[in-house]
């Protein structure tokens, strides 16, 4: 199957060309092209513009959505922390602080217990934060909403390169690819969403995803 606009080979059943982003088939007069997945799975049709091209989400819209999601995750993390303190008890943390401030052990003594516990708690907190973030982003982006709360608020959706809904596995790949994006100096991996052809950040390119804007 080939795209009628650019001639590139496309995936069988795809509604949009992965090369040029235009609809593969021709819709009836007065209607917009609709991906087959929309009719078969109940997912919304991919957003298109008047010329038939895909309406990609720009850098600034994505940044605002990211800030909203960051606030949501912070609230969730604080809630989890509050529940943890309530279950473990304030006394435990007071004892931990007292142990850390105590005199250092004598020479040759085993590794002190309290610093080890603190180090373990820090690792646990980091692990919980990563797992909560992963489940939030991957589950929401692979759901019928096709986006997190921040993206939903701004009318953005996450799709594959053919503008189809993504699976949980692909959404997970997109999430963990952000770790690579974050390693690029000066946030260039994220800024790429402002100047690449399909408004893709580095993690979008790695995971084969698009972020589209509803019209």
Question: What features would you describe in this structure?
Answer:
- There is one protein chain.
- The protein has 215 residues and is mainly alpha-helical.
- The protein folds into two domains: 1-53, no CATH class; 55-215, no CATH class.
- 50% of the residues lie in helices and 5% in strands.
- It is built from eight helices and two strands.
- The protein has helices at residues 36-41, 59-88, 90-101, 113-141, 149-153, 168-183, 188-191, 202-207; strands spanning 156-160, 209-213.
- It has a two-stranded antiparallel sheet.
- Helix 3 (90-101) crosses helix 4 (113-141) and helix 4 (113-141) packs across helix 6.
- The longest helix has 30 residues, at 59-88.
- The chain is elongated, with a radius of gyration of 23 Å.
- Residues 26-41 and 48-52 have low confidence and may be disordered.
Q: Which strand order does the major sheet show?
A: 1-2
Helix content: 40-55%
Class per helix and strand makeup: mainly alpha
What's the domain count? 2
Shape: elongated
| H/E element order | HHHHHEHHHE
Number of strands: 2
Multimerization state: single chain
Radius of gyration: 23 Å
The total count of helices amounts to 8
Quote the beta fraction: under 5%
Keywords:
mainly alpha; 215 residues
Outline:
The chain has 215 residues and is mainly α. The chain is 50% helix and 5% strand.
